[in-house]
């Protein structure tokens, strides 16, 4: 048996050298990574038919253990493998001396379950190849998508410009693309932009003054910190101004937050309306029956995270109450990320939502995310809040006002972010 050493820039290049010079019967003894590339030590038991490259100076080969994969197995060629058969025969002859004879069944089972060095090496190489192919595929997909986008922008520059502005305003790419497709092709930049904004306003559903006009039993739901209690106080105060304080009642289900009931009770005392606390579905039903003649009953729920198990229990409590029809409104922070808004709506859709209330508009730097979430889930927007004052800082939702506010915020903050700040950063770099 003779040993040869090969060098190449990568594994494929070295394996090709081995195949060209030694043929498919060669055995890979070892492989090593260097700064310049890959080094492989190969063995063969007969002279190669033809040698296209001068042989490297042979050196002492490293020791190896167990069954070694042949070049034919690595690159997928078929052919005789006499050296491999010889190595297997030697391994079988030496196995009685290295393994105990007391438990042949256990040894057989261990040999069956544990992968051989040959199998482990092949698996490792296959995993590396799969990862490399996956990375190449992702890169190609990214490049192709970029080329398609460039081609589309080149053919329809106004289309690309409008999509870019909507995305900077906070809309996801799919919604922006869908809206822009309806823009008139012969319009100028300003006309097309105004058309797109009007189309967004038409897509956004609203229910103006629904709670104060129709009354009934209303539940305000939502994650922690969205402003449910303050919103309930604003609605109760405005209802008291319209119908009288004796026609309004507040019920709180928040038994978890410290001083939650005291906060609601303080608002109720100032407004002059009734306030109660319910610990269970039965207590809630009893209170709803007690307040059955009220013009408006507002249920203030506890705020939980989307993954909190207590949220499911609270939703079940609202569903179990058969004493009255409860209209459920989702209270959302308008300054949240789009993904957060999506997940909140998905979780609370387990109960039938009548609409939503967007809060904290005064803290927003972008409104496109909240608008997009409401459009995507076809969730009507009923009220908007823009401060902490009770009852002043709440207004009836209007689609045109909301879209124009989103455009103004984009003009005030989005354009600054994408132009001036970019230029300043570029100069600083």
Describe this structure in words.
- The protein has 17 helices and eleven strands.
- The protein has 429 residues and is α/β, with parallel strands linked by helices.
- α5 packs across α6.
- The C terminus is likely disordered.
- Among the domains are: 96 residues, no CATH class; 188 residues, P-loop containing nucleotide triphosphate hydrolases (Rossmann fold, 3-Layer(aba) Sandwich).
- The strands form two sheets. It has an eight-stranded mixed sheet with strand order 6-5-7-4-8-9-10-11, sandwiched between helices. Strands 1-3-2 form a three-stranded antiparallel sheet, with helices on one face.
CATH topology of one domain: Rossmann fold
SSE string, helices as H and strands as E? EHEEHHHHHHHHEHEHEHEHEHEHEEHH
Measure the end-to-end span.
Answer: 61 Å
Strand order, biggest sheet? 6-5-7-4-8-9-10-11
Task: Output the structural class.
Answer: alpha/beta
β-strand amount: 5-15%
């Amino acid at each position: 048996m003779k040993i040869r050493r090969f060098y190449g820039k990568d594994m494929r290049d070295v394996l090709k050298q081995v195949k060209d010079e030694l043929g498919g019967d060669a055995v890979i003894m070892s492989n090593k990574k260097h700064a310049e590339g890959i080094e492989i030590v190969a063995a063969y038991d007969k002279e190669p038919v033809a040698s296209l490259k001068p042989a490297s100076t042979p050196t002492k080969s490293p020791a190896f253990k167990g069954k070694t994969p042949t070049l034919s197995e690595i690159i997928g060629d078929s052919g005789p493998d006499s050296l491999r058969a010889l190595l297997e025969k030697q391994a079988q002859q030496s196995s009685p001396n290295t393994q105990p004879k007391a438990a042949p069944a256990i040894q057989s089972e261990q040999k069956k379950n544990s992968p051989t060095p040959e199998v482990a090496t092949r698996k490792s190489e296959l995993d590396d190849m799969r990862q490399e192919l996956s990375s190449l595929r992702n890169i190609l997909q990214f490049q192709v998508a970029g080329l398609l986008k460039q081609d589309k922008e080149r053919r329809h520059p106004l289309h690309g410009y409008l999509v870019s502005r909507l995305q900077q305003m906070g809309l996801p790419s799919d919604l922006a693309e869908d809206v822009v497709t309806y823009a008139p092709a012969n319009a100028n930049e300003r006309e097309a932009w105004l058309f797109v904004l009007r189309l967004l306003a038409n897509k956004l559903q609203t229910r103006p003054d629904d709670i104060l006009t129709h009354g009934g039993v209303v539940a305000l739901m939502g994650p922690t910190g969205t402003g449910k209690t303050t919103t309930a106080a604003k609605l109760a105060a405005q209802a008291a101004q319209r119908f009288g304080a004796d026609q309004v009642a507040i019920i709180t289900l928040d038994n978890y937050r410290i001083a939650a009931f005291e906060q609601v009770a303080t608002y109720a005392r100032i407004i002059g309306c009734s306030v109660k606390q319910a610990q269970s579905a039965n207590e809630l039903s009893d209170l709803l029956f007690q307040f059955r003649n009220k013009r408006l009953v507002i249920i203030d729920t506890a705020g939980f995270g989307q993954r909190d198990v207590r949220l499911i229990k609270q939703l079940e409590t609202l569903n179990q109450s058969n004493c009255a029809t409860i209209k459920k409104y989702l209270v959302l922070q308008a300054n949240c990320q789009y993904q957060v808004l999506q997940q909140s709506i998905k979780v609370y859709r387990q109960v039938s939502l009548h609409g939503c209330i967007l809060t904290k508009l005064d803290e927003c730097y972008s409104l496109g995310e909240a608008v997009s979430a409401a459009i995507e889930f076809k969730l009507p927007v009923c009220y908007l809040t823009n401060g902490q004052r009770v009852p002043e800082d709440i207004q009836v939702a209007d689609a045109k006002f909301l879209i124009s506010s989103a455009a103004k915020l984009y003009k005030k903050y989005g354009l600054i972010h994408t132009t001036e700040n970019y230029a300043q950063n570029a100069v600083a770099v």
